[in-house]
Amino acid sequence: MSNTTSQAKNQSESRLNVLIIDDNEQITKMISSFLDLSNHDCTIVNDGKDGLELIKTKQYDSIVLDLAMPEFDGYEILDTLKKEDPSQISKIIILTASSVPLETVKKFKELGVSSCLQKPVDIDQLLSKITSVTG
Amino acid sequence: MIKIKQALFLVFGITSFIMFYIGLLNYLTTQDKGMGLIFLIFSSIVAFGTLFAGLYISKNITKPIESLAQRMNEFSKNNYIKKISVDDKGIQELQSLHKNFEDMANIVGGALEKEKQLNLKLHEIDTRKTEFMSMISHELKTPLMPIMGYLQLLKKQELMGELNEKQLDAINEISISTEILQKLIQDVLTAQKIDLGKLSVEKNIVESKTLVENSYKAFNPICENKGAKLVMSLKTTEMVYSDPDRIAQVFSNLISNALSFIPEKDGLIEIGTQDNSDYVTFFVRDNGVGISEDQQKNIFKKFYQVDTSSKRKKEGSGLGLSICEGIVKALGGKMWVDSTVNQGTTFFFDLPKAKIPIERFQSFKNPAKSKK
User: Fold this and answer.
1) ipTM, 2 decimals?
2) What pTM does this model have?
3) B227 near A CB under 8 A
4) Shortest CB distance from B145 goes to which of A99, A101, A120?
């Protein structure tokens, strides 16, 4: 039932293909169910390395990226993309629980990151950032 | 300035010269050349003896004093002195001076060394505390994210299906508690940053009235809800250096505080600006229970809660005012309070006017450490 209502609501909006990279499974699940209900396609990955691989091999409209992850973290993903595929950086929305100093936020902006959000984020705000990546 | 060596040399030198001179004069003027010669030889011996005694004494007095001065110098540089073997043949008073200085230096040096070790240990603990806090912040904020997300989702009934009134009620209660929890975590983190002098503020040029108007707009409905009146009083149009988000936080804390202490009927909160030479003074005034002078001394301290007979529910971490003060200091201003019990309280804070060069306010970068 909920599916039909949400489909009806979002019929006019374009369907987005979103990648979520976060080691916290509850968070990825929550965001993906929200995107699902809002009628967007969503891929979740709980490991930085797998995330980077997906960014390189597949096309996404928008990428939600956590910074602090074990083994391969968000900073390393950004570093790699900067060297290998900088065009992907503009699709990235950073979503982090650590408090990021203003200078670092500025550096992210210079790098071309779409936006930088602090956990816990307002889910509507996150969705609006995700949709605004693609205009 | 004169050296002991020179003084002694002068005194003994002149004395021996006079002795020799008297002997010589006596020899040249006396009739009895034999006696004169004996007297001359005698006076020469005495003169040379005096000269050598002078040299000897000068050496024994000045050397230990010079070496003491050197050791003192060494101690003030390194907080440590090397032990030296004291020469038994020297002057006793000077030797005991050396010995006593050595004892004192060892005690002071030991205490300083202990303090140094303690400081190192404290620094290490402090670093670990900072790491711990940053870890905790991450660990506490992360689970809040799905809680808040799912709560928001559940409220979107067109997506998640309809809820009955009781279920909605329950969800609203969870939302309120979650928000309180989130604000507490945020407050602890902000207070921690202020403590470390790491609070990052932007110093943008902003209209002073905009800062007040924004908070007025945000809080007017809330005050109306609680039956209180919120009024605005703007006495200046000056621009200030400010961080609008941080100042909104300051106003939010001050107005929320005022709301918990105003009377249930005819509660009045006034917010506004005044001109104050190089600064613009902002204020939040209420007609609440007031704060006694004793309590006024403590309210900016962390975790301090004003104990009043007010029946209103008091919530919060006791961090609000210390955070406000930290933010204002980081922006180059200061904060103070004026209150009369049973009449009301006014909190004031200054922000530097934008026409003053910003360099003058850069020294306030580290509010925690400048506070003593």
Assistant:
1) 0.79
2) 0.63
3) no
4) A120
